[in-house]
Amino acid sequence: MLIISRKINEKIKIGDDIEITIISIDKNQVKIGIEAPKKISILRSELLENVKEENIKAAKNIDLETLKEIKKAINENKSLR
Question: Which pLDDT band, with edges at 50, 70 and 90, does 67 fall under?
Fold first, then answer.
């Protein structure tokens, strides 16, 4: 992990396409701006972890009958095309 210090309005470049700017610094919060190509996904890690956890819970709770119904609906949808 690279650790560097930045002041307000200073920037960090990642490769040729990504630029991070320090927007503001308050007590326990740093606001940053990120400029990157639209094809690059930028997500807060805690949100990504929440989605992963919810997907795992959902996968554990789904029953075989529900999976059969989903498969049937997908197949019916394909035949309508």
Answer: confident
CA dist., res. 34 & res. 76, Å (int): 43
Domain residue ranges of the chain, discontinuous segments joined by +: 1-38, 43-81
How confident is the model over 48-71, as a mean pLDDT? 83
Residues 40-59, mean pLDDT to the nearest whole number:
87
Q: Which residue has the tokens 């610094």?
A: 25
Instruction: Say whether 7 sits in a helix, a strand or coil.
Output: coil
Q: Which residue has the tokens 């991070």?
A: 20
Q: Name the DSSP letter for residue 14.
A: E
Hey, is 79 helix, strand or coil? Answer: helix
CA 20 to CA 52: how far, in whole Å?
26
The DSSP output letter for 40 is S
Under a CB-based contact definition with an 8 Å cutoff, are residues 3 and 12 in contact?
no
